[in-house]
Structures are given as structure tokens and as C-alpha cells.
Amino acid sequence: MSNQQKVAVITGASQGIGAGLVKAFRDRNYRVVANSRSIKPSSDPDVIAVAGDIGDRAVAERIVKEALSRFGRIDTLVNNAGIFVAKPFTAYTAEDYADVLSVNVNGFFHITQLALAEMEKQGSGHIVSITTSLVDHAIDGVPSVLASLTKGGINAATKSLAIEYAKRGIRVNAVAPGIIKTPMHTPETHAGLAGLHPVGRMGEISDITDAVIYLDSAGFVTGEILHVDGGQSAGH
């Protein structure tokens, strides 16, 4: 196969938004390297599954090595892996803090650094991270300090990286979702969660995958935090 076929690396890819992203990129004829702790091997020859904790640099190194050895390039990185722990601030344990930082921050740092180095060699690439609208619009009753601390940092890093690499052919963006209908939220919670959005509904996985695909094709957009949140960040 030609190395000119584009390649996307997607973390947190075994279910929910991540699984939707794998399908969305395959539908556009990208080859995909999919990572999560529990991901199963794929029967699709154009999807490589790399199991492991993205907070571990050795796993990030393995993902990049597999992408290059099998597909020859990395065009897009989607930092989708994330942990959300909703607790009052004083109830967070040291273990909660370490777990959230490991996936949300260390995971972002390791795979982004390694993928960017390869994109620099190509003179092109795109990085998009999935953050959260809670960074900009905290909600009473949804305690989210660790999410804001970590994903807010990624929003800031997105803008910084976008400027650092703007003249090198590499774009860096983020998608900040509201609450999305995934297996993480049981059906009996849906009505209450829908009410947290001005539009009166939860988001669908396709709302996020559409936003990522848009950014991937939008060559004049970099440093953007695209809110896909049913109006949450605008007000309530």
C-alpha cells in the first residue's frame, strides 16, 4: 500500500467517542492506530490496535513505532483518552489526582511530543484534543476541579503549540464537548443531563466526530477550542 494514504492515531479508542472516531476516520479512508487499555485486535488490516495505558511513555513510543513501521507516517493525532472523576474538591484522594493527571496530562504530553516529532519531519500534521466545556463553564452540582485543571491545561497548551508550530505546517486544535451520550452515562441519567444544556439535549457521539473531522479538513484553522456543547459555554 502507498504511504500516501493518511494515518490517524486515536487514543481512548475502544468505546464511546473514541470508537466513533475510529469509524469516522476509516470512513474517510484513513488508516488508524487505535489505543486504549482494553482495546481488542481489529480484523481491519488498516486498523492497528495498540493496548496500553497512554500515561506510560513506553506505550506512546509503541504507538508511534507501530504507526511508522506499518503505515509509514502520522498525519493526525486525536488525544481522546481522558478520565473524569466527579467529587467534591476536598474528597479527591491522592490516587484520584495521580490517575487523572497520568491519563489527561502525561498521556497528552508523551504521545503529542512523539507524534509532533514525526509530523515535523513530514512538514505537515494535525493534532486535536478532546477537552471539556466545563473548563469555561463550571456547573453547580457537577464538581469538576480535576477535569478543569487538566483539560484546561490542554486548552492552553493547544494555543501555545498552535503558535509554536504554525509556520511548520502543523495545526493544533481542541474540541470541548458538553455531556455526550456514551456508555459512561446510564439511560436514567439522560433527562437530567440533557437539562444542563441550553438546547435541552445531550450531545451525540456524531456531534463530536463531525467536529473533529471538520477541524482535520480546515487548513486555515489552528489554535481553536471548538465548543460542541449545546450552548453551555455561552451561558445558561
Describe this structure in words.
- The chain has 236 residues and is an alpha/beta fold.
- It has one domain: Rossmann fold.
- 40% of the residues lie in helices and 16% in strands.
- Strands 3-2-1-4-5-6-7 form a seven-stranded parallel sheet, with helices on both faces.
- Strand 5, helix 4 (145-164) and strand 6 (170-177) form a beta-alpha-beta unit.
Which helices and strands, and how do they pair?
Blueprint: E1 7-11, H1 16-27, E2 31-36, E3 47-51, H2 57-71, E4 76-79, H3 94-122, E5 125-130, H4 145-164, E6 170-177, H5 190-194, H6 205-217, E7 225-228
Parallel strand pairs: 1-2, 1-4, 2-3, 4-5, 5-6, 6-7
Helix pairs in contact: 1-6, 2-3, 3-4
TL;DR of this structure?
With 236 residues, the chain is of the alpha/beta class. The protein is built from six helices and seven strands, in the order βαββαβαβαβααβ. 40% of the residues lie in helices and 16% in strands.
Number of domains: 1
Beta fraction: 15-25%
- Alpha-carbon Rg, integer: 17 Å
User: How many DSSP helices?
Assistant: 6
CATH class: Alpha Beta
Indicate the percent of residues in helices.
Answer: 25-40%
* Overall number of strands: 7
Query: Which fold does the CATH topology refer to?
Result: Rossmann fold
Give the uncertain stretches in residue-range form: none
Q: How far apart are the first and last residues' alpha carbons, in Å?
A: 51 Å
* Structural class label: alpha/beta
The CATH architecture name reads 3-Layer(aba) Sandwich
What overall geometry do the principal axes of the alpha carbons give? globular
CATH level-4 homologous superfamily: NAD(P)-binding Rossmann-like Domain
